[in-house]
Amino acid sequence: MFANQFWQSRRAGWWAVALGLTTPLYFPLGQVMTTDVLLFVCWTWALWAAWRALDQRQTTAWYELGAAVGLGSLTKLSIGLLPFFLGLGLLLTPAGRRELRHWPPWAGVLLMLLLFSPVVLWNMGHDWVMFRHEQGHVVGVADAAGLSGKLRDLLEFLAGQFLALSPLVAVALLHTLHRPPRPLGQRLLWGLSLAVLALFLAKASVSKVQLNWPAPAYIGLLILFAGQIDLLQARWRRLVLFGMATSVLLVTIALFPNLVGWSPAKAPFRDLRLWKQPVRDVAEQAGKVDFLMVPRYHLAGELAFYWPTRLPVYLVGEGRRFSQHDLWPAIDREAGRTGVYLTTADRLPPWVQQAFTACHALRPTPGVTADGLTIRTLYAWRCEDHEPSTGLTPTTY
What we know:
Layout: H1 2-7, H2 10-22, H3 26-29, H4 35-54, H5 61-73, H6 81-92, H7 94-99, H8 103-124, H9 129-138, H10 146-165, H11 167-177, H12 184-204, H13 217-226, H14 234-255, H15 276-286, E1 291-294, H16 297-306, E2 313-315, E3 339-343, H17 350-353, E4 356-361, E5 365-368, E6 374-386
Helix pairs in contact: 2-13, 4-5, 4-12, 5-8, 10-11, 11-14, 12-13
């Protein structure tokens, strides 16, 4: 609907839908329940409201903008980049400063802060943990990898973004949108999107940036691109269509590698495969236990999901980041009980062994694909009579 209204064209709307559905970055993220899904919804709504407020002169759109950002902040704080760069743009232009002399933009800000207030109030009582986490992304950006490591991270970021958009579609998009457009509405989407991308590009030059972090920035660019496709020369339109088709093909192969004889052990998303049976095999060996322990955050999710019965899972790894596990009840409450330590490394850390009267190794359980290749092997120890002690604490946010 946004692209339809923006370009006054149903074809542009359908192009936007097609681009969204065939973009490798958005399709896989849309298949799993993560905070990114709701972030994309709120970001699109906020961008749509900003365009209607500034270009279409709809006063009530300022309130929608505040509501979209406020609700989005309950999902992911990175949505704050949109009002930040929008506000900066308004302050730097005469027309924008005139807009800020009126009440509606500030009413939108108040609504945004009101909806965001539960996050602030909760953090006040929890040592500002969410903001410390974001500070680790924004302030503590420098890696110790040296110049070569930073250059590698930057090249990985650029290559990853091309792949995430589909290389052929990305080339056509750059060809179409490499110059700033003249109309206000188009310039708004173009400027906001590039500002967010520039921020992550700058960060990628000093530390690693995850593939999905800049994803919201492409929403505005795809809407701009959707209205230009029918105006492209025939060879460029064919390139876009071919790029979309190859994207669908590549995502299909990545999700179902057996279709082309590719082993799941070597295909993308292999880290998400073959958890259910190995975890259940470990559970059968362990028998009745009271809790589970893992060294890594991501392993905790797989174990909690696939373990046959619902048990508390505790992070006991060394050098880990602060996470929600550190806000939940600590492992000390399991005094005298029996637990299982599970990892993908054939090693029982000494601090785990010292916290129990005895730990017994269980049989290693591999995750084997249909073609006989091993994706991973789970190693587990059944540890009895937990003795509370000074545990390892997170070292970073």
